[in-house]
Every structure is written in C-alpha cells, then in structure tokens.
Design brief:
186 residues; alpha+beta; 4-stranded antiparallel sheet; 9 helices; 55% helix
C-alpha cells in the first residue's frame, strides 16, 4: 500500500514547525528505510510505501512528542489538513456546506492512499458517518491521522464543537472503519 508524498511531507514539516529541537532525534530514531525517505526531499506527487513513510515515522513522532502514537498521529493529521487546505482551497472549504466537504472526503482519501475507498454511509443535518471500505494495511496510527485531518478541515470550514469518533475499526477486527463526525453551526 502507498501514501502520497504530500501527506508524507507533512510529517517532518509538523516536527520542524512545532518541535524543531527534536527533529534530528526523531530522524535518528527511524529505521534505515524510513530515514532514506526523509533524507532526500519528499516529492509531493510521488507515492511512498505506507509503513516506512507514514506508519513508523508517525508512531515515532507520537512517542517522542506526546508519549502516545495516536495523539501524535491526530496532531499530524490536523497539521496536514491545515497545510493542504490553504489559499483557494481554504476559500472553497469556507464557502461549501459541511456535508459537501465531508462528502468529498472519499475522493480526497483516495488521492492520499492507494488503493483505498471511503464513502458516506449516513448523514444528518449536523453529522455524517464515513466508512473506510478498502484499505490494505489498516493501522490505528493512520486512522487517527485521518480523523485529525477531518477534524481540522471542519474547523477550517468554520463550524464549532467538531467531534470525530472512530466507532468501528479494521484494526480492531471490524469489517470496516467507521468514523462519525458531528458539529454545531456557529
């Protein structure tokens, strides 16, 4: 399974922006395969192996910075959304409805992870349920990163009290990963 370089690039960018003094230690803590990815410039349009480029580096980031790989993944996902949703994208996000933004998550998801598939399973006025139906290498760190990305995207839109819960998980033996997103209108 592979992850897009633009998502990979956000991992070292997050550390450099928020914890620059720990960047060298983080890089040294990675196995050789992962170190090689980050020693050269990460190309946003290239594809990288999911485990070496995202799972292991994000686990190490979470352990080093928060004592919790999932918290680090969540924060890294939020940062990735903040970086990705700038300029014209930010204007578009703010102009669209919250449901429209979430309904595009499936298309956005498959541009970051391949092969993968995410769909809207159910929706209400102030909530939506997303299902990850295809993901060859499920991992709690990636699910947490995705949830953090969704949370930040909704905050950028301008709704408040965003709540993102992973209610089912491929990593816990469920047949799908299900993410419930709820919010309040300002």
């Amino acid at each position: 399974m592979e992850i897009k370089g633009s998502a990979v690039k956000s991992i070292p960018e997050y550390i450099k922006k928020n914890h620059s003094e720990k960047y060298a230690n983080w890089l040294e803590s990675l196995p050789e395969e992962s170190q090689r990815i980050f020693q050269d410039p990460v190309l946003p349009s290239s594809w990288y192996p999911l485990k070496d480029a995202a799972i292991i580096p994000t686990e190490k980031l979470g352990e080093m910075l928060y004592g919790d790989p999932l918290k680090g993944a969540w924060q890294c996902g939020r940062h990735s959304a903040e970086v990705a949703l700038t300029g014209l994208y930010k204007f578009f996000i703010k102009a669209a409805s919250p449901f429209f933004i979430i309904s595009k998550a499936g298309k956005i998801f498959s541009t970051y992870y391949q092969p993968s598939r995410m769909e809207v399973a159910d929706k209400g006025d102030d909530w939506v349920v997303l299902q990850i139906l295809q993901f060859e290498e499920p991992h709690p760190v990636i699910e947490s990163r995705i949830a953090g990305w969704i949370e930040k995207a909704m905050e950028i839109h301008g709704v408040s009290s965003v709540n993102v819960d992973i209610v089912k998980s491929l990593t816990r033996g469920d047949k799908i990963t299900e993410i419930k997103v709820s919010w309040k209108y300002n």
